[in-house]
Amino acid sequence: MRRLLTTLTVLAACLFGVPAIAHAAPAPIGGGSILFTAGGASRCTAAFAATGGGFGHLVAGRGCAGATTLYSGNNVLVGPVVAATEAYTVVKVTNTAAWTLVPWINTGSGKLTITGSTATPVGGSVCLIDPRAGTHCGAVTALNQTISFPGGVVTGLTRTSVCLEPGGTPVAFVTGSQAQGVPFGGSGSCSSGGVSYFTPVNRILATYRLTLLTG
User: Fold this and answer.
1) What is the domain partition of the chain in residue ranges?
2) CA gap 73, 71 in Å, rounded
3) Which has the minimum average pLDDT: 39-43, 119-123, 171-175?
4) Which of 74, 80, 44, 42 minimizes the C-alpha distance to 170?
5) CATH says 106-200 is which class?
6) What's the confidence (pLDDT) of residue 6?
């Protein structure tokens, strides 16, 4: 009888006395998050978060062209690539158990919450967020620009007077809290001056029927 009581006590403790195992909450993913292919052969940086078709998406810079699936963090799956062009990348965030989409950009010194995507006209101020080199600002100098480079031709770019720092990690162009575009490239430096280009985010959103995630 004593053995039976002991067994029942142990079973009761197992059923009612052991707390549930806590699972880690999904990590935030959004502007500034590094994306890469399995093995890290290709890398690109997320600029903005968006939604569409019942899924979250990340609109990222160039660098992941040819990729089919992207990862982040400690080689954790993000999801399949929707588009990977010479100018930008769009990935669907299907691994919601590991990631939660956020409407802000990691600037390196804080978080910038994106509230919209009103396009800045020629002559208007625009800034490039770069967590490594710092945020630099300038003006929009031209729209609908075409650039030829060894990889091909890219059209519909916006030109700016924002300088690029060698060795930096450009994330996104913004005006205040308004998303402007995904960095494409440029020339010069912040010591000598230069020119930079971005793909307008509204053009990308419209192409893939996405809605910018805002906060």
Assistant:
1) 27-105+208-212, 106-200
2) 7
3) 39-43
4) 44
5) mainly beta
6) 42
According to DSSP, the residues that pair with 136 across neighbouring strands are 128
The structure tokens 């998050």 sit at: 33
First to last CA, the chain: 63
**Tokens matching residue 108:** 């390196």
- Using H for helix, E for strand and C for coil, what is the string for the chain? CHHHHHHHHHHHHHHHHCCCCCCCCCEEEEECCEEECHHHCCEEEEEEEEEECCEEEEEEECCCCCCCEEEECCCEEEEEEEEECCCEEEEEECCCCCEEEEEEEECCCCEEECCECCCCCCCCEEEEECCCCCCEEEEEEEEEEEEEECCEEEEEEEEECCCCCCCCCCCEEEECCEEEEEEEEEEEECCCEEEEEEEEHHHHHHHCCCEECCC
Six-digit token string for 116 = 């919209």
pTM equals 0.87
CA atoms within 13 A on the CB side of 213: 23
| Phi, psi (deg, nearest 5) at residue 149 | -150, 170
Architecture in CATH for domain 27-105+208-212 = Beta Barrel (2.40)
Residue 10: predicted pLDDT? 38
- Given a contact cutoff of 8 angstroms between Cβ atoms, the answer to whether 93 and 27 are in contact is no
The C-alpha atoms of residue 96 and residue 26 are separated, in whole angstroms, by 7
What average pLDDT does range 197-214 have in this prediction? Answer: 98
